[in-house]
Amino acid sequence: MAKRRGRVIFQEDRCKGCELCTTVCPVDIVKMNKSKINVKGYHPATVDEMEKCIACANCATICPDVVIKIETIEE
Q1: Residue ranges of the 4Fe-4S ferredoxin-type domain (predicted)?
Q2: Domain residue extents for the chain
């Protein structure tokens, strides 16, 4: 059986830093990038450990501004 992973893509300049995506990740890899400020003046969401992404799409589903896209990778 193939292992399912994903790649999270953020449109960082549209993120308003609401942090909703960080609350629904079952593997706790979605974080706020405290070292970056986007064009709107917010810390955007990011993923540091992309290899742990299971492509559940919870973050993309909860995002009110539709700034997150998930690419599924089958191994």
Answers
A1: 6-35, 43-73
A2: 4-74
| pLDDT tens sequence across 18-60 | 999 999 999 999 999 999 999 999 999 999 899 999 999 999 9
Residue ranges of E strands in the chain = 4-10, 30-32, 45-47, 68-74
Q: Structure tokens of 28?
A: 């706790």
pLDDT at position 2, please? Answer: 62
Where are the extended beta strands (E) located within 19-61?
30-32, 45-47
Instruction: Answer whether residue 12 shows pLDDT above 90.
Output: yes
> What would be the CATH architecture of the domain defined by 4-74?
2-Layer Sandwich (3.30)
Which residue type, as a one-letter code, is found at position 1? M
What span, in angstroms and rounded, lies between the C-alpha atoms of 44 and 68? 11
